[in-house]
Amino acid sequence: MQRNSQDTSRGFVSRHLAVWISGLALVAAAGCMVGPDYRPPQATLPAGWVGPTTQMTLAPEQQAELVHWWTTFRDPVLTSLVERAVTSNLTLKEAEARIRQARAARGFVAADLWPQLSANGSFARSRAGGPITGRTAPTAHSFFQAGLDASWEMDIFGGVRRNIEAADADVEASIEDSRDVLVTLAAEVGLNYVNLRGFQQRIAIAQSNLTAQKHSAEITQQRFKGGFVSALDVANANAQVATTSASIPLFESSARQTIYALSVLLGRDPAALLQELEPTAAIPAEPPQVPITPPSELIRRRPDIRRSEAQIHAATARIGAATADLYPKFNFAVSLGSSTNNLMTLLDWANRAWSFGPSGSWALFDGGRITSNIQVQDAIQEQALLLFQQTVLVALQDVENALISYAKEQETRRALVDAVTANRKAVELSTKLYAEGQTDFLSVLIAQGSLFASEDALVVSNQNVSTSLVALYKALGGGWDEPKPPEPAKAPGAAKEPAAAKK
Questions:
Q1: Residues 6+ apart with CB under 8 A from 274
Q2: Beta bridge partners of 359
Q3: What pLDDT tens digit does each residue of the chain (503 aa) get?
Q4: Considering only CA atoms, which of 269, 315, 317, 41 is closest in space to residue 163?
Q5: Is residue 341 part of a domain?
Q6: DSSP letters for 162-182
Q7: Are 345 and 351 in contact (CB under 8 A)?
Q8: CA distance readout (Å), 220 to 213, 244, 277, 299
Q9: Is residue 469 situated within a structural domain?
Q10: d(CA 146, CA 258)
């Protein structure tokens, strides 16, 4: 008879529990998500670039060059530096850690969508005192208790789901932030490397001119001893030698500091790359064709724009999460347990205890806390939208700046090539005439100074052409690519390619 009573009780609990859980699941599944739905922001973009795009191509097959733009310079040292920086730069590792943080935060938020289950147990030993004058001795008692508690807050109005949506957008924003760091890192390595080679070339130019100027000073000294020139010519020649000599340490200092900067970008100590980079090398020359994307591709290519878009998505979702607090909250709780004063009978059915049922709460008055929070989230979304628009404008400006700088610097370089050729001829003629006594030393001094200035300016122009191109690649969002989808797995019984077919 007791057995039948236990079975009946268990059936009653099971049926009612199943009915409650099924009903609440249907209610939760039918729940809506309050608040605005996210819609991608629209940006007004020009149809084409204002700046010159000569020697540039929009061919799709050359877009891969934008992803790995440093390879277009055909400089193995530059390629090696960028590839090493991608694997060892500490700022990039920090950005990758933020991605893991955002994903973990998403899991933390998503846990609210599931029931929470906890186990509990306790043991107490108590001793009750007897009467003051009575004969009954005090007794000690043991009490054992164990149970399971489950609770579930039903997401009827979508507050939890909005928070999960916002967390997903935060993950996307952190990924785009990492890509933006990657774009910036590649550009920083490229700019520093070009500057290093530029300083080395300027040192070489200065040393070459210094050699020629010392030779002229020796000729002047000999002519002074012979009484052909005055001491003024000797003083001018020595002054020119000293001035050129003074410029070399500045270039050497800048070159060394640039190597230090490259080492830190690679996550190493400042002196780690001295042996590798101190030998003089040429400035990386720009490729004959430069890949460039149209303005409409900026939103897809620029990680900072994509990050701003993800931040708008997160802010929009958080408006919904804040709005859900205006509505009632419903919970369903289940508690199963057993208690006894004998550990051996703790699992007996007769010692059972259970409870289950729904509960609800609704904030009827909170002094405007909820509505103020909604207004806060609205303002955050507005800021995110304005930041997106500003980021798009800055991206357009970056590209236009790089285009005009690249084009105009090429014009400057062509003029400087002609200037160097003319100044070399002037130095040759003035030196010859001075040695023959047909002109004064001032002509030689002016010609040599002009040659040094034009040769140094030509090196700087070559450097600027390459750095403008690096800036263009960065402005276009070059330096990263979407991960390729995995290739479909072959069937287990697929035949292998015959050996003869591999020839």
A1: 256, 259
A2: 331
A3: 444 544 544 454 455 545 445 555 555 545 588 989 999 998 889 988 998 877 676 655 566 778 899 999 999 999 999 999 999 999 999 999 999 999 999 999 998 888 888 888 887 877 766 555 455 566 777 777 877 888 888 888 988 999 999 999 999 999 999 999 999 999 999 999 999 999 999 999 999 999 988 988 888 888 888 887 788 888 988 998 999 999 999 999 999 999 999 999 999 999 999 999 999 999 999 888 888 888 888 888 899 999 999 999 999 999 999 999 999 988 888 888 787 777 777 677 777 787 888 888 888 888 889 999 999 999 999 999 999 999 999 999 999 999 999 999 999 999 999 999 999 999 999 888 887 878 888 888 889 899 999 999 999 999 999 999 999 999 999 888 877 655 555 544 444 443 333 43
A4: 317
A5: no
A6: HHHHHHHHHHHHHHHHHHHHH
A7: yes
A8: 10, 17, 39, 64
A9: yes
A10: 68
Compute the distance between CA of residue 302 and CA of residue 392 in angstroms, rounded to an integer: 9
What is the amino acid identity at position 203?
I
Question: DSSP letters of 76-92?
Answer: HHHHHHHHHHHHH-HHH
- Can you list the pairs that 417-426 forms with residues at least 24 positions away whose Cβ atoms lie under 8 Å? 417/458, 419/454, 419/457, 419/458, 420/451, 420/454, 420/455, 420/458, 423/447, 423/450, 423/451, 423/454, 423/455, 424/451, 426/450, 426/451
Q: Which domain holds residue 40?
A: 36-117+159-328+369-482
Nearest to 328 by CA among 40, 67, 34: 34
Residue 351 CA to residue 330 CA, distance in Å, equals 30
Total of domains in the chain: 1
| CATH number assigned to the domain comprising residue 280 | 1.20.1600.10
Both structure tokens of 184: 């910036």
- DSSP codes joined into one string, 349-378: GGGEEEEEEEEEE--S--TTHHHHHHHHHH
| Assigned token pair, 176 | 């785009």
Task: Find where tokens 């001829």 sit.
Answer: 425
11 inside domain = no
Does residue 499 belong to any structural domain of this protein?
Answer: no
Confirm if 380 and 318 have CB atoms less than 8 A apart: yes
Rounded to an integer, what distance in angstroms lies between the CA atom of residue 171 and that of residue 99? 6
**pTM for the structure as a whole:** 0.83
